[in-house]
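Q: Hi! Curious about what tRNA(Ile)-lysidine synthase looks like structurally. Here's the sequence.
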Amino acid sequence: MPDARRPRLTPPIADVRRAIRETLASLAAEDAGSLVLVALSGGADSLALAAAAGFEAPRVGLRAGALIVDHGLQPGSDAIAERAAEQARSLGLDPVVVTRVSVVTDGEGPEAAARSARYGALDEAATELGATAVLLGHTLDDQAETVLLGLARGSGSGSLHGMAAVSGRYRRPLLQIRRAQTRAFCVDSGLEAWADPQNSDPSYARVRVRERVLPVLEQELGPGIAEALARTAAQLREDDDALDRMVDEFIEEICEPAEAGIAVSVAALGANPPALRQRAIRHVVSSEFGVTLTRAQTIAVARLVTEWHGQGPLDLPGVRVSRAHGTIVFTAV
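A: Let's find out. The predicted structure is below.
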């Protein structure tokens, strides 16, 4: 007699499990027997992820646990977190940890502040538990929304390439899975997902993209927009990774120490195409001074190479840039 607790293997369940299996298999090959943690909110995406991880992890020799972060931003958030924890335990995940955070905006928007608090809590808990990886439930739909938001903000390729499948200890196994599939997974598995009211609040730009912009694009341009945006993100990430490797290969050869900073050869920067030249400038400023330049600031620095006519130094946030003796000199301020 079949186990009544075991869900029937429907296509959504098979698809999600397959996606998780590929990620877990690669982790098991690196560190068999280690612990992976699912970042669980109780929503359909993370709940499907938790259920699939609980099923697949033992089959590849891994342990699966869950981390639930209570942001305290909604009435009853503690009960919502505990309900998610109970679901995780019922799915066989162990350990299951609930942690409450304080969301302080401190100049950030509410979404960014909540994200910072959440990742801080995830990092701390993963370190304490000795976890090999933390699994995040971002789907193909989330990726498409991220690309559109980056495009609207003019944020450059850094945001247009979307979220990485692997980023440090974080893994996103569901980036090729649609949100409709995770919802169907939960229905087919008899799991009741929590519907976060903020996910339908139009005051958030991401919600407006999800509920208004993407449907209009699908209606006017035809189906497959989300998939096309996700493919674009993947292609841009490949290009970005290649350009980053090229910069890493030559950047040390064209730099030399300078008083309170670093100097970069004008000739070497000028010999490279704009994409590499500007990427090298951003790399130097980011790695040496912890400053992220805007495109306008990066181009202003590049003009000291390509349009030099004796202009004075540039004062940018945290760094002064000048040209002297055939070099671009970056100094801390």
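A: A fun detail: The radius of gyration is 23 Å.
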